Structure formats: structure tokens, C-alpha cells
């Protein structure tokens, strides 16, 4: 043993790559190192010993990764990181980045019914474990009761970590595990995590994690509401599923890649079945998969049979705004449900303009007040009602029109209140269109769409004595049309690989009621003294856990299904019409939506339990896909952990990944009639003896053929492949505003199974 220690010390002293601790030139930062684990010299008993001997001294290492990723994160200077890049065992180095959170009735809106269908067949998701990567959890909420739940599954290996106001007693048969990951955050924030507003533990100081956890798997909670809004029974999509909380995001500080990767590593070891991660890039830049720790961590999870659900981001309605693009991740956009919280702006000229609000204080009771628009002066900061921009002489005793953007919506109301205003009308700009979300305002306030906002501003500027009031109308259920694609929901095309349609599907993400922390009020603002057991939030953050809960139900009903099969079941059985039996519409424009907005469609769990056919994908298929987009073996190993080989004779096509959607991408340089063929393989998960026939909806100006047009399955033959050939005359096809045209191929067996895949045809050069 002594000789091996001496040998390791000699190796340490002689290594040309060892960090120089005395010649640092720049401020230290956190870097993540992807290491070829097989290169570890045999003299080291563990990878940690190797890393702390040859790469960085022990005190600088934050996390060591074993399960989804071989490597470590450490606090070093950029110069030291550059030195280590040349080490033969280092496959990749990337700087730790900060990411952002993508911030009662929805289960029924997804087609779930008590004692029937998927809830019944899956026993409400019992014994499936959902790992929620978020801001932690507030364990005392009724949504996390373990009443009448069975014992914790024996396969579970997780822990209940202790910390500030959190200990083993806060876990139970519902919350089976809780961890917190703070080392990256502590290293990145001057002075470390602010313990006056945060808990150095799994306890949730923000509310977001409590909300997403209960959306996915909350137990039924009767007489639930947010200050009287959305009253009824609140329950998650998979009420009997177990929750494991992984706190990777911190109040007002976001989420660090190094901590997120550590959570993936722990969750795979612990034994979760589903991972729900409502987090995305905070800089608006889409990183390639080998530089994206969420993509890397989720690949490691998916390769172990874990379903990963992620949010599509809130940068819509701009094109190519969808995030979390890896094909092994299920990417979820947001839609409305058939419940609304109307609040009307009433003008002195008699016009009543529709808006929304969750204000629960003393109403205005029809009293009219002067109304003013600070933006009339031309100062954008005043029009946005930013801090210290409103002159009390101009707004005292008045309702103030504020433009949306640049600061939190509810914070604008506080600015108005401080300046003496009595109310606020929050007006969307053109980028938000008519998309509205409710907020629990601290003063009488409502949000209105862009068109209504323009009308109110015009009235305020043209009338000699403009006055207004706000009428708060409570909760209305059964609104039509619904679902509608939320204006903020991230949109396609896929900015990395347009051959893979993203988002995959949409789910409820607007005005969702779920459990809330007791640490902050419903607005999350420090000055909000209110406490509430439930809160109403909007965002793709809220849509993602709906799909996480759905995956738990499907996993419980079909334990042998892979993550890709579960996703396929959801995607091929979606709804494409709203409750008015019309095509889904885009909230931002009021026009018909496209697969770039909704992917395959709106989640429908009433059909997903029995999809008939699924499109399965193996780890080898994903590797072939990575080869097809030009990644070399060493680059792919950053993602897969193990060495790989790419085909040398014929480069594979990314369009041939066995995805439930189909995108045909033609280069802009091609002229005339061009064709592209993609292959799909369907696996029969329905009746053993079955015959499916193809029905084609060709995009306008495009010819689509399917061979064979008929798939015959037997007890012995459960998988059948077919070819889809897309032919387009580039001189005549009109791609329209989206730059694409859309169609579908649907397989039906003459009974209840209808298996639909959207087809997207576009012209685009390699990104």
C-alpha cells in the first residue's frame, strides 16, 4: 500500500498537467471535466483519488460524477482549465453555466377519470418514483401525505438529507427521498447562498419545486384553492406515485450545471423511474449535446431506462425558441385548459375589455378612477412601470396602464402602489400578442392582450377625462376554445437538428393550481406577506410535470416499456382539436397552430395507455444518430460514457432515427423535383394478430408515399418497418410564414387504434 501511495505522489509531482496553484492569472471559476474513466492508472483505488492527485487539489473539487458521466467539477482559473484540456484522459471541458426555471382541473382535462382507464390500470402510478429536479419541496403540504400508501419500494436506494429545517422525519412513504446540491451554487455566488432567504436543505424557499412536484404526483387535497380561485379538489397526474426531491435551483440564483449533473448522477443511483426537469438555458444559446449537461445527464438516465421529461422554454412565440432538444428527452410545450379567471377593464366610454387576474383583495365594486398611461411621455422605463420611474404627482389616485416586459408582472403593481396608484392594467406588447396568464396581484390589477391594451391607451390619450374600473369575475370553467397553445411556449424548428421535431407535444401549462411553499407569498416577492397552501402559476415548467406524471402512469401500467416507447405512446395518440372540435389555435395570433407550435399535439392519456403501435429507440440507435450529425467517436463518448464506433462505409441519416414524428429537410440549394426517404419501425403492443393500413395526409405541394401501405403483425412478428418517401418540387411548393408545410401518416387497424405521426417538410441548410 505504501509503495502505491509513493508512486501516486511521484506521478502527481511529475505530471505536466497538474494545476499551478501559485501562478493563477484570472479569477477562479467552476469548470466541468469529462474524463475517460478507463484511462485511470491502476495505482489509484478510486477515480476521486486520481482526480485529486493528477487534476485538481482536493479542496477545489466540488462534485465527482460516476453514473451518468465520468468526471468532476472544480473551481480553477481559465488558464488552468486550458492546461488540463491537453491531458490525454480529458474528453471535454466546459464552464459551469447558470440555467433558469421555466416558470386541480388539469388531470381531468387530459382524459383521466376516477376508477377508469389509465388511472385504474396503473393504480394511479403506485410505486413509480418521480425524481423532480427543482427548488426543493415543502413537505408539510397535504399534497404530500402518505396516508394509505404502501411501503417504499424495496429497490429504492435514495436518502433523506438533513439540513436547515429539514430532516429524516420530513420524508415519508410519499416523499421517499430528498437531496440538495449546493456546491456549484456556493462557489459561483459571492458570499455563498443567502441563508436569510434560502434553506441549505431540500426545503423549498421559492415554491416552484413544491408546485411542480404536486402537479406530477400530488395526493388529492379537498377544498383547495388560491384565495378562492380554482376551488375544488387538487391532485397530481399520478397521485400514488412517489416523489424524490432533488434541489438544484436556489431562490433568485437559478441552477448551476455542475449541481444539475450531480443530481442526475444521484438520481440514477437512487433508482428513480422518471425525471422531471423544468429547467433550461438561461442565455438563449442552444449548446451542442456534448456541451450540455442536461443533455448528457439525461442520456445517462435514459440509457438506464429512466424517462426524462423537460420543459420547452418560455421564449415563444418566436420561431426556433424551443429548448431541451436532445432526442432522448421528451420536450413539453404549454397549453391552456378550459378554466379561466376573467377580469374586465371597464372604460368610461362604456367599453368592457376582457382580461385576466387572480387579485383577491378588496374589489373596486364598479367605482371609476382616472386612468393614465406613463408611456405617453415616450419614456420606455416609465411605460414599463420600472422601479422609481413613476411620478406620484401623475399617478396618485389613478389606475395606471403598464406595459409588460423587463420586470416581473406583479412587481409593476408594487411600483404603482408605491407611487400612490390605486390599480393597474397590464398591457401585452406585440411579442406577447393576446396570450394572458393570471397573477396574484397585490393591488387591483388585470392583464389584457396587445389589441385591448392599444385600445385602452388610445382612450386614455384621446379622452379629456379618461376613467376606468376593473371587474374581477372569479373562476369560470368550461371556457372555449381549449386547449390553446400558450403564446410563451417555446416553438420549433429545432435549432440543433431540424430533422427531429421539437417540442414533442404540449400539455397544460397556463394558470395551473398546485401546492406552494410557506416561505413566500403567492407572488414570490419579498414584500408579499400573504401565505397560501396552493398557488396558480403558468409556464412550460407547469406543462413538464404533467407529462412526468403521465409517464409514471404509463410506466406503472406497462413496466416493460422503454422511455422511448412511453414517449411514442403519448405522441401518437394526441389530440389535434380543441373542445370546440376545431383545429388547435395559437394564442399569440389567433390563427391555426402548426407542429412547430404543438409537436405531435395535446397530451391525451385516455388513449395513450393503449396506443396499438410504438416507435422504440435503443441506445445504439441514439449513437447512430449522433454519428449521423457529424459527431466523432471521442465527442460521442462525452455523452455516452463508453467508447463507440461510427459506420465507415455509409454515413447514416439523422432522419432515420426511429422517432414518432417525421421531418424531411431539403437543402435550399436543391432546385426542381427532389425526394427523401426515411425509415420507421413500428412495434405492436396491442393485440398480437393485427393489420394496420396507412392513411396519408400530404402537405400542400408535396407527394408522400408509404411502402408497404399495410403492416401485418402476428404472434411471431411484432415489429414491422416501412419507408416514407417525400417528394417536393422546390420551384412550386410554398412554405409559408413558418418556412415549412405539414402533413401526417396515420396507421389504423379498423378498430380503436389510430397511430399518427406528423410530417414536416422544410428547406434549410445545415445548422
Automatic annotation (TrEMBL):
Q: Indicate the segments forming the Subtilisin-like protease fibronectin type-III domain, all copies.
A: 656-761
Q: Which Gene3D superfamilies does its entry note?
A: 2.60.40.2310, 3.50.30.30, Peptidase S8 propeptide/proteinase inhibitor I9 (3.30.70.80), Peptidase S8/S53 domain (3.40.50.200)
Which InterPro entries does the record match to this protein?
PA_dom_sf, PA_domain, Peptidase_S8/S53_dom, Peptidase_S8/S53_dom_sf, Peptidase_S8_Ser-AS, Peptidase_S8_subtilisin-rel, Peptidases_S8_3, S8pro/Inhibitor_I9
Q: Which residues form the Peptidase S8/S53 domain?
A: 125-581
Source organism's superkingdom?
Eukaryota
Q: Which residues form the Inhibitor I9 domain?
A: 41-102
Which species is the source of this protein? Camelina sativa (False flax)
Where does the PA domain lie?
370-456
Protein family (similarity comment): Belongs to the peptidase S8 family.
A Pfam family that the UniProt record links to this protein: fn3_6
Q: Would you indicate the residue range of the signal peptide?
A: 1-20
Q: What is the lineage of its organism?
A: Eukaryota, Viridiplantae, Streptophyta, Embryophyta, Tracheophyta
Gene name, Swiss-Prot/TrEMBL: LOC104721290
Give the annotated active site: 134, 208, 541
Keywords in UniProt for this one? Glycoprotein, Hydrolase, Protease, Serine protease, Signal
What is this protein called in UniProt?
Subtilisin-like protease SBT1.6
Question: Does this UniProt record's set of keywords contain Glycoprotein?
Answer: yes
Amino acid at each position: 500500500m505504501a509503495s502505491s501511495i509513493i508512486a501516486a505522489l511521484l506521478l502527481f509531482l511529475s505530471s505536466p498537467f497538474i494545476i499551478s496553484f501559485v501562478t493563477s492569472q484570472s479569477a477562479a471559476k467552476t469548470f466541468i471535466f469529462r474524463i475517460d474513466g478507463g484511462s485511470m492508472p491502476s495505482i489509484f483505488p478510486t477515480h476521486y483519488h486520481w482526480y485529486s492527485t493528477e487534476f485538481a487539489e482536493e479542496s477545489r473539487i466540488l462534485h465527482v460524477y460516476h453514473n451518468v458521466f465520468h468526471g468532476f467539477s472544480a473551481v480553477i482559473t481559465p488558464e488552468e482549465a486550458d492546461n488540463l484540456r491537453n491531458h490525454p484522459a480529458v474528453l471535454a471541458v466546459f464552464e459551469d453555466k447558470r440555467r433558469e426555471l421555466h416558470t386541480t382541473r388539469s388531470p381531468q382535462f387530459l382524459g383521466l377519470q376516477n376508477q377508469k382507464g389509465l388511472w385504474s390500470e396503473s393504480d394511479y402510478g403506485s410505486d413509480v418514483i418521480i425524481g423532480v429536479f427543482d427548488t426543493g419541496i415543502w413537505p408539510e403540504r397535504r399534497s404530500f401525505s402518505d396516508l394509505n400508501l404502501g411501503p417504499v419500494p424495496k429497490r429504492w436506494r435514495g436518502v433523506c438529507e438533513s439540513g436547515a429545517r429539514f430532516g429524516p422525519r420530513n420524508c415519508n412513504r410519499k416523499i421517499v427521498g430528498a437531496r440538495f446540491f449546493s456546491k456549484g451554487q456556493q462557489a459561483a455566488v459571492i458570499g455563498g447562498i443567502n441563508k436569510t432567504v434560502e434553506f441549505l436543505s431540500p426545503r423549498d424557499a421559492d415554491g416552484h419545486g413544491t408546485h411542480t412536484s404536486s402537479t406530477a404526483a400530488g395526493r388529492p387535497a379537498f377544498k383547495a384553492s388560491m384565495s378562492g380561485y380554482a376551488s375544488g379538489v387538487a391532485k397530481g397526474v399520478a397521485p400514488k406515485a412517489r416523489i424524490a426531491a432533488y434541489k438544484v435551483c436556489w431562490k433568485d440564483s437559478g441552477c448551476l450545471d455542475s449541481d444539475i449533473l450531480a443530481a442526475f448522477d444521484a438520481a440514477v443511483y437512487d433508482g428513480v423511474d422518471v425525471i422531471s426537469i423544468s429547467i433550461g438555458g438561461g442565455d438563449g444559446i442552444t449548446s451542442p449535446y456534448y456541451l450540455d449537461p442536461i443533455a448528457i445527464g439525461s442520456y445517462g438516465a435514459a440509457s438506464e431506462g429512466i424517462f426524462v421529461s423537460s420543459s420547452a422554454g418560455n421564449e415563444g412565440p418566436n420561431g426556433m425558441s424551443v429548448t431541451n432538444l436532445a432526442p432522448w428527452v421528451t420536450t413539453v410545450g404549454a397549453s391552456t385548459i378550459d378554466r379561466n379567471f376573467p377580469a374586465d377593464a371597464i372604460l368610461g366610454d362604456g367599453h368592457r375589455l376582457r382580461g385576466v387576474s387572480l387579485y383577491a383583495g378588496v374589489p373596486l365594486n364598479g367605482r371609476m378612477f382616472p386612468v393614465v398611461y406613463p408611456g405617453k411621455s415616450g419614456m420606455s422605463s416609465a411605460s414599463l412601470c420600472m422601479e422609481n420611474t413613476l411620478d406620484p404627482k401623475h399617478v396618485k389616485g389613478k389606475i395606471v396602464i403598464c406595459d409588460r416586459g423587463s420586470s416581473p408582472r406583479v412587481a409593476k403593481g408594487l411600483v404603482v402602489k408605491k407611487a400612490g396608484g390605486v390599480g393597474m392594467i397590464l398591457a401585452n406588447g406585440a411579442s406577447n400578442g393576446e396570450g394572458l396568464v393570471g397573477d396574484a396581484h397585490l393591488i387591483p390589477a388585470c392583464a389584457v392582450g396587445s389589441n385591448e391594451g392599444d385600445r385602452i391607451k388610445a382612450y386614455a390619450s384621446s379622452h379629456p377625462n379618461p376613467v376606468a374600473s376593473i371587474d374581477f369575475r372569479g373562476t369560470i370553467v368550461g371556457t372555449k376554445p381549449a386547449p390553446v397553445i400558450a403564446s410563451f411556449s417555446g416553438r420549433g424548428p429545432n435549432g440543433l437538428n431540424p430533422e427531429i421535431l421539437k417540442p414533442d407535444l404540449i400539455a397544460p401549462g397556463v394558470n395551473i393550481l398546485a401546492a406552494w411553499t410557506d416561505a413566500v407569498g403567492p407572488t414570490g416577492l419579498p414584500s408579499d406577506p400573504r401565505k397560501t397552501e396552493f398557488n396558480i402559476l403558468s409556464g412550460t415548467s407547469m406543462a413538464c410535470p404533467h407529462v412526468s406524471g403521465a409517464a409514471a402512469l404509463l410506466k406503472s401500467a406497462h413496466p416493460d416499456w422503454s422511455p422511448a416507447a412511453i414517449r411514442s405512446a403519448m405522441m401518437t395518440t394526441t389530440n389535434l382539436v380543441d373542445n370546440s372540435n376545431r383545429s388547435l389555435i395559437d394564442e399569440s395570433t389567433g390563427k391555426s397552430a402548426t407542429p412547430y407550435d404543438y409537436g405531435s399535439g395535446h397530451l391525451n392519456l385516455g388513449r395513450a395507455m393503449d396506443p396499438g403501435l410504438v416507435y422504440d429507440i435503443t441506445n445504439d440507435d441514439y449513437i447512430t444518430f449522433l454519428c449521423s450529425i457529424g459527431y466523432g467517436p471521442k465527442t460521442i463518448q462525452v455523452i455516452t460514457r463508453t467508447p463507440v464506433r461510427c459506420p465507415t462505409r455509409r454515413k447514416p441519416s439523422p432522419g432515420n432515427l426511429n422517432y414518432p414524428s417525421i421531418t424531411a429537410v431539403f437543402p435550399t440549394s436543391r432546385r426542381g423535383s427532389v425526394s427523401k426517404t426515411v425509415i420507421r419501425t413500428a412495434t405492436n403492443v396491442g393485440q398480437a394478430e393485427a393489420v394496420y393500413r396507412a392513411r396519408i395526409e400530404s402537405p400542400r405541394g408535396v407527394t408522400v408515399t408509404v411502402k408497404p401501405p399495410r403492416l401485418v403483425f402476428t404472434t411471431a412478428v411484432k415489429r414491422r418497418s416501412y419507408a416514407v418517401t417525400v417528394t417536393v418540387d422546390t420551384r412550386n411548393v410554398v412554405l409559408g410564414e413558418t418556412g415549412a408545410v405539414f402533413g401526417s401518416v396515420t396507421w389504423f387497424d379498423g378498430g380503436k387504434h389510430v397511430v399518427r405521426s406528423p410530417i414536416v417538410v422544410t428547406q434549410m441548410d445545415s445548422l
